[in-house]
Write a structure and sequence with these properties.
Belongs to the D-glutamate cyclase family. The protein is α/β, with parallel strands linked by helices and 596 residues long. Helix content is 32%, strand content 16%. The strands form five sheets. Strands 1, 2, 3, 4, 5, 9 and 10 form a seven-stranded antiparallel β-sheet that branches. Helix 8 packs antiparallel against helix 16 and helix 9 packs across helix 16.
Length: 596
Amino acid sequence: LVAMDQRNSLSSLSPFELRQIIRTEDPRIKTTTGLAYGFQQANVLLLPSALAKDFEAFCRNNTAPLPLLYVSKTGEASSGPLAQNADIRTDISQYCVYEHGRMLKTVSSLKEYSNCLKDMVCFYLGCSFGFEGKLKEAGVPVRNVEQQKTSTSVSCLPAGIFRCPLVTHLNPLAHGAPVHIGDPALLGIQDLSRPEYGDAVDPQPGDVPVFWACGVTSMEAVLSTKPALAFSHSPGCMFLTDLPDSSSPVGPFRLSQHPLLYSLASKRAVHKIRELEKIVAEDPGNRGISAIVLQDELLLSCLALSHASSVAITTGFPTHYMHNPPDETDGPPGAVAMANMLLSLGKQVTMVSDRRGLQLNQDLIDEAVTSGVLSAPVPLVTFEDNGPDSAVRFLCHDGDISKPRYDHLVAIERSGRAADGNYYNMRGINIKHLVDPIDDLFVAAKEIPGISTTGIGDGGNELGMGKMKERVKSLMPKGDLIACDVPADYAITCGVSNWGGYAVACGLFLLQNCPSHQRYLKKGLGLNGTAPPEESQRWTSGLPSVDKEESFLSTLVRFGVRSGKTGNLAMEVDGLTFHPTHSELIARLLKVTHST
């Protein structure tokens, strides 16, 4: 109880007052956990000046584990703008001493090394301990602090002689937002009960693992480069700065349960994607679709697609069942718009077609590439039900569910299977004879870890809309009959399905230009800042535009594809010209995407 009272009395002191106590080697301060709440604490590493340039570059390459607060001048004992009247030789409660890449001992002062320090540079790196209080205020338990414990296979980006693994930590670090939320295996960590650093944390029921980059990465760098002499803080014994803590995580948004995966994005990007969702959910045809709209499905789908590396897209709704070809102009333009953006982001894209429409879809892809609507050809495949394992063998290499071929499936304006096994258009006419069982892929994906799915529709009878089938049954005309029974993980409802494809493309562009999201995708590794001009141009060229959509529409019409909607929802006017409803909507989406 006495020790606890002493600790509580220390917690009210300022960083300056605490540094003065640490300087006297007061035994009450063994670690700085829970001290100087509201102020940043720093990891510290002192290296020979000959290594300083390489290590500074290494820090700038790996900003999450090694966020630079200050780099001292050679031989400087004070800490510049970080703290007044500080002395790095005495103001940490315990230091580690390294010789030739091996930790030799710990000491409570570096004064005996004063001569050596004259040719050394001190690196002050952002750290965790000032951020714990914010999570506590928000009601988020920090297990390692509760249990009084401190703790990959991801590699840092090298610089000069420095290279080492990224060390992660089940502790909220003021290195910015987390680098991973969810299944540890996705970060290369196979067993949380056996950490490579520190103590194992005992998770409680319902806990979600959250990983921040850890300042121990700097110690790993020292061990890997083996300088003749180096010093660091001892884990848990940080340098207390006078800087207010301004760290703030964003999100998270859960993307999947198996494996458990969350994602992050900035408030600005999230707000813009929600604005896109509002625009495409408008109902100019007064068809009642607002009643079946689910909020944030566009945001979650875009986040999941941003994490994906290989995406399969399918479309095709044979509304004109007595015409050849029977398909409508809603669907293919949105599918191509998504494919084009995904290609611009360096992702693999495959199109999945009904067998009856294979040649038509191949011709459409070829024309899209020739006209510049699609930046590169994409593979076109079909799916046949040849037995109970057909879907798994299609989705996974050698039928092995641990080796998925795709990590996201997207269906846009694709006929969806109803509860009775048939496929219906909005008039309730059964068109099953024109539809291949691509729904089976979405059903199978539910049982394959690592594959997520998106459905985009405008009536409730499209593949993936099974997620809101009860709403469709009760609120849409002929809903009991036509409602799709097959759900997707994310179901985007739009006034016209093509609009959803355009919005997904814009949402992906926003996430690609969102520093918070990109940092999370890259596990906090790599340089922050503006992308090279050629990359920015490639992403921008991946966006939909009125010119691209009019060009692709003319191709569809030339191949005999007709609009499935009438009035102001029809894609074309007089059989060819893009309808103003659609051109105006694309302009609005692009205005939101590019606005500052």
